[in-house]
Design goal:
This protein is of the alpha+beta class and 733 residues long. The protein folds into 6 domains: 9-80, no CATH class; 86-164; 206-295 and 633-666, no CATH class; 312-531, Ribonuclease H-like superfamily/Ribonuclease H (Nucleotidyltransferase, domain 5); 542-626, no CATH class; 677-686 and 711-733. It is 39% helix and 15% strand. Strands 15-16-17-20-19-18 form a 6-stranded antiparallel barrel. α13 (362-373) runs antiparallel to α20. It is elongated and about 120 Å long.
Length: 733
C-alpha cells in the first residue's frame, strides 16, 4: 500500500480491526503505525454482535505495516475522507466571544497533542499519550479528566484546533434600537465617501425616535394598499418630511427637502423590518389566498534543522517589476502587481505563488497559501489555464511557515494558523536574510522577465541603462500569471542544486533539481504531508463575503452566478417568497469565475459566473470593484433626483385626479336632459359631437352602417380618400 499520511482516515473491515481509524503517527523504522479508533463502521448494531462503546473512541492500536498492506490488498482497508459537521467548519473569527475563549483554553491545553513531533515522540517512547497529558497539565488550565475527554475529539474530527470547538446550539440575542438623540450620534458604518476621505456635501442624518414613530404610523396605515415598498417610501416621505410648498399655475407644488435631512431608503427599510416580521411583510404584499397557497540564518544553510520537504515553507511578498494593463479595457494602466511566493525550504522548490493588485495583507497571504494547497484542477478553472508547477506529489499545508513581520503579525494570521494547526515562525524586524531563499527566488523570477516582457524593468539597473515606460506594457494580470507559471515550472525542473545532494541521493541517481529533490524526499518517507479537507481550506483561506440570493439568481458584487439545478430551485423559491437572502460566501479574489455559497446544510457549494454577467470571468475582483466604486459614489445623488421626480409627478397625478373629479361633478349638476346610452355616446364622440339633445344621427340611406361598426371621423375619411388616390396613381405607372 501507499505510505500513510498523518491525520488521514482509514476504513478497515476485518475481524480484529473494524471501523474508522485515524493515522496518528508512523514508526521510525517504517514497519508500522499507530492508529486511533475514530468511529464504528456500522451505524446500526449487527445482530449477534455487541455495540461498540463510545469509550473505545481514541483507543490506540499499534499495527504492523505488513498487516495494513495485507488488508489493503484484500480490499478490507481503504483511505477515505470524513466530512466534518458544519459547526466545526466555522472560522475562529466567526465564533462568539464565549466560544472563542473556550476553544482558546482547549487549544492551549491540547497544544502538545497538535504537535506532530511531540505526539510521535510520546508514542515511540511510551506507546501512549500519558507524557502528553502531563505536559498539558503543566501548561494549561484544564484537568486530567478534561484532557482525556478532548483526546477522542481529536481522534474523531482530526488533529486540528477546530475539532475542539464547543457544540453550542444557540448564541446571540435580539437587537436593540439605537435612535439618534442628544447624546448618541447616528448609528451605522461610515458612508463610502467618508471611508474614501471625500467631503460629503449632504451628510445623512440619523433617525430619531420621533421620526421612527411617524414613519411606523404612516406605514401601518398605507401598507393595506398592497403597494410596493419603494412606493410606500415615497408616499411617506411626501407626507411626513415635505414641509414646503410653492404656488404655481398648477397649484401648490411640494418642494423636495435637502438631501440628507430625511431618512434614506436603508433607514426606512430598517425601521420597517425591525418593526415587523417576515411573515407579516409577505402577507402585506399578497392576498390571503395566494399566501396560503405558496408557502515565514546568517550561519549555515537555510534548510538546516528542516527534516524534509513539505515541513517548512517560506513566504514573502514583493512588488512586481512590471506594469500591467486592465483586462477590462486594454488602454487602462493598472500599475505594478503584488507577487506572493511560497517556497519549500528543504528542496528550494517553489510550491505556489499568487499575484494580486491590493495589499500586501493577510487576506492576500491566505490566498497564496490556498494556491499552494488547492487542487490543480480547481486552480486551473479559477485562472483559466493549466496551473501546473511540476511537483509530485502535490504540496499540502506545511508544519511551519517562515515569514517576516508585517501582515503575519495580526490576529487574523494567528486565528487562521490556530484553526489549521499551522505553526507560524516570524523573523525579527529588518532581518530578511533569515529567509534569504525566498528573497533570492524573487530576484530569479524578475531576471527571467525584465529583458523579455514589454513594460518590465530591472530596479538595480534602471538609473544607468533602462528607462521604464509604462506605456510599453502589454500584459494583463492573467497573462502575467500564465507567464509566471512557465517561469516557475522551468525553475523547479532545471535549477541546479548539486550542493544539496547527499551520498544517498547520488546513489539513487537523483537529479539535482528542486522538483526531483521534492519527490525524492517524499518517496523515502522524510516528507511532511497533512491531509486537510478541501472544504476546510476554502473556509479558512479564502475571503469570506456575502452572496445575495434573489429570485433572479445568486449575485456577488452585482455579478450573477449559477449553481446546479437543485440548489437553484431552492434559493430561487426561498427568495421569491422571503425576499433577498444574505448567504455566507467564499471568493478567490484573483478570479470572478467561481464563488462558493453556503446552503442550509451548512456546506459551501460551488457557483460559476453566468455567461451574460456584467463582467467576464477573466477579470479580477479588484478590477471589477474599481468600476463599482465609481458607480456607488453617485448612487445617493441619483436616488435623490429620482425621488424628487417621483414626488413631483405624484403631486401632478393628485392634481389631475382632483380636476377630473371636479369637472365630472359640475357636468352632472348641469345636465337636464336624459343621458344617451354608451353606444350612442361613443357614436357622438366619433363623429365630432352632434347635438347632444336630439340623439338623431345623420345616416346615409343607401349604405347603412354594418352592425357594430362606428362611422368614420372626417379626418379618417379624408386620409382614406388621399391614400386611395395615391394607390391608384402608383398602379397606373
Amino acid at each position: 500500500m501507499e505510505s500513510l499520511t498523518f491525520n488521514s482516515v482509514l476504513r478497515i473491515d476485518s475481524d480484529e480491526l473494524r471501523g474508522f481509524y485515524r493515522v496518528v503517527a508512523t514508526m521510525l523504522d517504517g514497519q508500522g503505525a499507530w492508529l486511533a479508533f475514530s468511529e464504528p463502521l456500522d451505524t446500526e448494531q449487527i445482530e449477534g454482535q455487541a455495540p461498540v462503546p463510545v469509550e473505545l473512541i481514541g483507543q490506540l492500536h499499534e499495527v504492523p505495516m505488513q498487516t495494513l498492506a495485507e488488508l489493503s490488498d484484500s480490499g478490507q482497508l481503504l483511505e477515505v475522507q470524513v466530512k466534518a459537521p458544519p459547526p466545526l467548519l466555522k472560522s475562529l473569527a466567526d465564533l462568539p466571544d464565549h466560544e472563542r475563549r473556550c476553544i482558546e483554553a482547549r487549544a492551549a491545553a491540547m497544544k502538545p497533542f497538535l504537535n506532530y513531533e511531540l505526539l510521535h515522540g510520546a508514542l515511540v517512547g511510551s506507546g501512549g499519550i500519558a507524557p502528553l497529558v502531563n505536559m498539558s497539565l503543566a501548561i494549561g488550565t484544564l484537568g486530567r479528566a478534561s484532557i482525556y475527554r478532548l483526546w477522542p475529539l481529536l481522534c474523531r474530527h482530526g488533529f486540528e484546533p477546530s475539532s475542539l470547538v464547543p457544540r453550542f446550539d444557540r448564541c446571540g440575542a435580539p437587537g436593540v434600537l439605537r435612535p439618534m438623540d442628544g447624546i448618541r450620534c447616528k448609528a451605522g458604518r461610515k458612508t463610502l465617501r467618508e471611508r474614501l476621505g471625500e467631503p460629503d456635501p449632504h451628510p445623512q442624518q440619523g433617525v430619531t425616535e420621533r421620526d421612527r414613530l411617524k414613519i411606523w404610523a404612516q406605514y401601518q396605515s398605507l401598507s393595506k394598499l398592497k403597494t410596493s415598498l419603494p412606493r410606500l417610501y415615497a408616499e411617506i416621505i411626501r407626507r411626513v418630511f415635505v414641509t414646503r410648498f410653492e404656488h404655481t399655475a398648477e397649484g401648490l407644488v411640494p418642494v423636495m427637502p435637502v438631501q440628507g435631512t430625511y431618512p434614506n431608503w436603508r433607514q426606512f427599510r430598517h425601521i420597517v423590518e425591525s418593526s415587523t416580521t417576515l411573515v407579516d411583510r409577505i402577507r402585506e404584499r399578497t392576498t390571503t389566498t395566494h399566501f396560503l397557497r405558496t408557502g515565514r540564518g546568517l550561519r549555515g544553510r537555510s534548510y538546516d534543522g528542516v527534516p524534509g520537504p513539505g515541513y517548512c515553507f517560506a513566504i514573502d511578498a514583493t512588488i512586481g517589476d512590471i506594469y500591467l494593463r486592465s483586462s477590462i479595457n486594454g488602454t487602462w494602466l493598472i500599475g505594478r502587481p503584488i507577487v506572493y511566493m511560497v517556497v519549500d525550504v528543504w528542496s528550494s522548490a517553489i510550491v505556489g505563488f499568487y499575484v494580486c493588485l491590493s495589499g500586501p495583507s493577510w487576506d492576500m497571504a491566505k490566498q497564496a497559501l490556498f494556491s499552494v494547497t488547492c487542487e490543480p484542477a480547481l486552480l486551473s478553472r479559477l485562472w483559466g489555464f493549466s496551473f501546473d508547477l511540476g511537483l509530485a506529489p502535490l504540496p499540502t499545508l506545511p508544519f511551519t511557515v517562515l515569514s517576516d513581520r508585517g501582515e503575519y503579525v495580526s490576529s487574523g494570521a494567528r486565528e487562521t494558523c490556530q484553526s489549521l494547526g499551522l505553526a507560524l515562525s516570524i523573523n525579527p524586524a529588518y532581518r530578511p536574510d533569515l529567509k534569504g531563499l525566498v528573497e533570492v527566488l524573487h530576484r530569479i523570477v524578475k531576471d527571467q522577465q525584465f529583458a523579455f516582457l514589454p513594460g518590465a524593468f530591472d530596479r538595480r539597473r534602471q538609473e544607468l541603462e533602462l528607462s521604464a515606460n509604462p506605456k510599453e506594457s502589454v500584459m494583463t494580470i492573467r497573462a502575467y500569471v500564465n507567464y509566471l507559471v512557465s517561469v516557475v515550472r522551468l525553475y523547479n525542473q532545471t535549477a541546479d542544486r548539486s550542493d544539496r545532494l547527499t551520498a544517498e541521493m547520488i546513489a539513487a541517481n537523483v537529479r539535482p533539481f528542486p522538483a526531483d529533490l521534492w519527490s525524492y524526499g517524499h518517496s523515502v518517507g522524510i516528507g511532511y504531508r497533512k491531509a486537510i479537507d478541501q472544504d476546510r481550506l476554502k473556509i479558512e483561506l479564502l475571503k469570506h463575503t456575502t452572496l445575495m440570493g434573489t429570485r433572479r439568481g445568486v449575485f456577488h458584487e452585482s455579478l450573477r452566478y449559477e449553481s446546479d439545478e437543485d440548489l437553484h430551485q431552492v434559493w430561487a423559491a426561498t427568495a421569491r417568497h422571503a425576499g433577498v437572502q444574505r448567504l455566507p460566501g467564499l471568493t478567490f479574489q484573483a478570479s470572478n469565475a467561481l464563488v462558493w455559497g453556503q446552503h442550509a446544510d451548512g456546506r459551501f457549494h460551488e457557483l460559476k459566473l453566468c455567461a451574460n454577467a456584467r463582467a467576464p470571468a477573466m477579470t479580477t475582483s479588484d478590477e471589477w470593484r474599481d468600476a463599482l466604486a465609481a458607480q456607488t459614489t453617485r448612487g445617493e445623488k441619483l436616488r435623490h433626483d429620482a425621488l424628487a421626480v417621483t414626488i413631483a409627478e405624484m403631486a401632478k397625478q393628485h392634481a389631475i385626479r382632483s380636476a377630473a373629479i371636479k369637472a365630472t361633478k359640475a357636468a352632472l349638476a348641469e345636465a337636464s336632459a336624459p343621458a344617451p346610452t354608451i353606444r350612442e355616446a361613443r357614436m357622438l364622440e366619433a363623429t365630432g359631437g352632434a347635438d347632444a339633445s336630439g340623439f338623431d344621427m345623420p345616416v346615409d340611406a343607401d349604405v347603412p352602417p354594418a352592425q357594430g361598426d362606428l362611422p368614420l371621423s372626417a379626418y379618417e375619411a379624408a386620409m382614406d380618400d388621399l391614400f386611395s388616390k395615391l394607390n391608384a396613381e402608383e398602379a397606373a405607372q
